Amino acid sequence: MARFAAIKSALTSALLAVAVAGVPLAQARGFQDGPAVGGAATVLVTQLPRQGQETYELIRRGGPFPYEKDGAVFGNRERLLPIKTRGYYREYTVKTPGSRDRGARRIVCGGPQKTPHACYYTADHYASFLKIVE
């Protein structure tokens, strides 16, 4: 049963990558590659929406960030990312066109702020994650 849940999660993440990036299914990373660390499928930086690519670049430069909460500690309460000590993960807003608030899209990174060990994209406010690969 656990194996089925892992396969279902990987497939769901891969389909999310297709929807987010608008790429053909055959190009969706994670669908062919299987689950990554923490059970997350992967997405190339270039497959992120334009706003996600911009946020990722801001993270790499160390800001400045447009939202006050950018860089805040992400608690990983959903436990969908690898378990780490509190303060390891930080979250950043990915602008959502037409949204009046921060929207549901985020990038969550773990490790040092300018050189994180890993970053993850969520388009559904932490319900699922795709590991970002360069």
Automatic annotation (TrEMBL):
Residues 1-28 form the signal peptide. SUPFAM superfamilies: Microbial ribonucleases. The keyword Signal applies. It comes from the Bacteria. Transmembrane segments: none annotated. One of its GO terms (molecular function) is RNA binding. Keywords: Hydrolase, Nuclease, Signal. The keyword Kinase does not apply. It holds the Pfam family Ribonuclease. CDD domains: RNase_Sa. InterPro entries: N1-like (IPR000026), Ribonuclease/ribotoxin (IPR016191). This is Guanine-specific ribonuclease N1 and T1.
